[in-house]
Description:
- The structure is a homodimer of 237-residue chains.
- The first copy, chain A, contains 10 helices and no strands.
- The first copy, chain A, is mostly helical and 237 residues long.
- Chains A and B meet through helix 5, helix 6, helix 7, helix 9 and helix 10 of A and helix 5, helix 6, helix 7, helix 9 and helix 10 of B.
- Chain A binds a DNA duplex (30 and 30 nucleotides) through loops.
Amino acid sequence: MVQQGEGGQRVRLSRDRVLQAAVALADEIGIEAVSMRRLAQEVGVVPMALYKHVANKEELLDGMVDLLVAEIDPPARDAGWKRAVRLRVLSARRALLRHPWARPVLESRVNKTPAVLGYMDSFIGMFLAGGFSVDLTHHVMHALGSRMWGFTQELFQEPAPSAAEPPPAPPPEAMAAMLEQMAAVYPNVARVAMASAHDEGSVVGPGCDDQFEFEFALDLLLDGFERLHAQGWSSRS
Amino acid sequence: MVQQGEGGQRVRLSRDRVLQAAVALADEIGIEAVSMRRLAQEVGVVPMALYKHVANKEELLDGMVDLLVAEIDPPARDAGWKRAVRLRVLSARRALLRHPWARPVLESRVNKTPAVLGYMDSFIGMFLAGGFSVDLTHHVMHALGSRMWGFTQELFQEPAPSAAEPPPAPPPEAMAAMLEQMAAVYPNVARVAMASAHDEGSVVGPGCDDQFEFEFALDLLLDGFERLHAQGWSSRS
DNA sequence: AACCTAGGTGTACGGCGTACACTTGTCAAG
DNA sequence: CTTGACAAGTGTACGCCGTACACCTAGGTT
Lengths: 237, 237
């Protein structure tokens, strides 16, 4: 995977090539396995060479987020605030699903880059353009929270696909016993887990449609926003 | 801080003492500074000694979460589902605010301990007891997402209080210039930031009431849930 | 031809989690 | 009181990590 020119001569590194490579690598092996050393190896260079292009690992991660943000569609024009917000969030979500590393990285970021601020700015702009008061817009952005980025803290997230293979699935009869025991100790969890599993034929496993859940909550919030907006809600009241 | 008995003799370690110490240490120095080595030093023992009480660092973090969960109040009795859920979430939030390390740790957890499952089970139970269908309960739990734990992904989280002191605040006139420039590039961000800052007299900084934002979004969701419940909503429709 | 400098190298340091072989302290049975 | 077993604590070591710092080197400018 070492990047080389025709005659074996090195291709010059650049900040952009470093960031692109980092994104590709994280897509491939997972963010927790991306180290400066591993990335350097990937671009065919000694680890310290990377530091000529990014100040440190934090800045590398910031740069990766910037690349992600660039994948999110701009706001739809003439669509009405609600539809525009919905479309954009779903676009963000698509970008996020293409890059599984992005969620934890976004969560960990503390300093906002210009690209991130730009995204937030234009996001806020959609509400303001829709006639929302500055006040309501503010609270509504908080209410959206991470949904602005196309994700929510998942209740049950399946363990990340890692190089280490998971323990072998227990045999079906043991599984049934486990389920029974589970139902005894956590009856409520069992009830909703069973119900959603039933609907799709899968006995266990996620058994619920991530995208559906996401849109369910998103629409619930958007409908709430609409109601508040219509009744001229303000935070001093 | 080495734990010793009267005559200087060691106090026996135990899993519980390890976990308690880990929580206290994380409260004090921040979770990112808690290492097995640092924790061992805190309890007056060599690092490897900890492994006689927890299998590895992951299990240590799981144990810390369990301690946190134990701080959350049980569901209120005879309060109606909405009030019960609201009270409980706010109790979780209080626990979370006492332990700033908990949010990132909760986010990173992948295997649910019995204590966590127990919390979720009784949480789900509040909706079922309120007459919610299993189906609606399922989606409603997803909609709550991390709010069940008393937090949401923050839009602007202030940098964690770390040992390293932050760069000195720029002089006020430079600040004004920065704000002006910011307003030019990110007009919408500037508008909502200004407005919320204005209300509280603080020129900049968070300038918005975390608790208020949290309750705003929580109530928006709960009201949405109520509406769906009242109209007998079901996911197949 | 001489020089400058941006980009790439090599070595090293202090941290991390934890495997593995060991000593030590405690307590129950003989 | 002795003994021996087992749990608790120790010491050393390995392979990772991010990155400071001094150095070399290839290209382009003068």
